[in-house]
Amino acid sequence: MTTPTTNPRGRRRGTVMAFTIFATVLETSTVRTAAAYSFSRSIGRHQQRQTSASFLHATNARALSTRPRPIPLGVPVNTSTRLFSTVESASGPDVIASVEAQIATKGNEIRSLKEGGISKDDLAPHVAELLALKAKLVDLTGGEAPAPAPAKKAPKKRPKKQPAKKDESEMSVNELRESRLGKVQAMRDAGAEPYAYVYDPNRTASQLSKEYEGRLEPGQEDEECEEIAVAGRIMARRVFGKLAFYTLQDETGTIQLQFDKKRLRERDEDSFKNLKAWTDTGDIIGAKGTIRRTDKGELTLYAKEWTMLTKSALPLPDKYHGLTDISKRYRNRHLDLIVNPSVRETFYKRAKITSSLRRQLDAKGFLEIETPVLHTQPGGAE
Q1: pLDDT per residue as tens digits for the range 207-223
Q2: Which residue from 74, 231, 296, 382 could staple onto 201, CB 3.0 to 4.6 Å apart?
Q3: Is 161 exposed, middle or buried (0-12, 13-18, 19+ CB in 10 A)?
Q4: Is the dihedral of CA 269, 271, 277, 278 positive or negative?
């Protein structure tokens, strides 16, 4: 740039020259900038082409590496070996998770096969495949295979609760009859006779009461006496684990029977179990044993064995309320005589009075004849 002079013409010439130089420099820099921009764009396109080509090459290589390849000939193939094996070139989290899922699935399959009772020879190929998957996981993770997660145990099936056994008071007459006849059949299946032909008791309840009146202290047993046999109807039964107490009634009174599981097993292993399963109130049984007094002082037959004499098909009336209905008592005289001792005593006295009068009249020479009493037509003696 020239130094401006005081000459106006020279000043204008200098200004023009300066402007020309500035324009030239500006044009040169603009051309350089455009050239640089064009060059950078061409280099960017070239790099992009190279990157696309390398990406395609890598994709094709991965596809070729993951393509199933046939197993070479000469390699032993077991029943569980697949026709094609797959090799992953990468060991990313997705691949590792996939192998772990295959291990878990195979483990569950092996457990189900074991539960199904598969033989060891048939199970061996499945175990080999599981081990191969675990080895593959070790290669992918570069360390030891992680411990498999414990299998969830299948919830245990709870046994269905058996319906509660009905009490006799809640059962109908038909249900009671079927239940007791079922016990009759169970006895016959076990070789026992529910309706015995003969039994010979050697004592009655009243005889034992008189014989041991004032004898034996509470808890004492008469072990020196002969074996005593009694028979009668079960009026009440109380079972306490390995002990059972029955109230037995015969024609003269009542006596208590005591059954001990250990004592009964000396003669019959299943005697106590059968006693609880087969007997009910109303049954007629026989028992043999010795006499003792309980701790409360009640005279008791300490049984060594028992025998079913008559199995009752229906229970007795309620032991608390008894048979109080007059019309029902008259229609069921047999129940009235069983559960009401006063009625039984009345019948006993009536029979004794009748037989005593007959003996006296026979001794005086009277002749007994039968005459109709309730006939509407008059008639004579037959």
Answers
A1: 999 999 988 999 999 98
A2: 231
A3: exposed
A4: positive
* Tokens 């090799």 -> residue: 87
Burial of 317 (0-12, 13-18, 19+ CB in 10 A): buried
The rounded distance, in Å, linking the Cα atoms of 368 and 358 is 8
CA 115 from centroid of its chain's CA atoms: 20
C-alpha distances in angstroms, 220 versus 94, 213, 229?
A: 86, 14, 19
Contacting residues for 195 by C-beta, under 8 A, at least 6 apart: 309, 310, 311
Structure tokens at 60: 């094709």
Please write the tens of the pLDDT for every residue from 48-77.
Answer: 555 444 444 444 444 444 444 544 444 444
User: Per the confidence metrics, is the pTM higher than 0.85?
Assistant: no
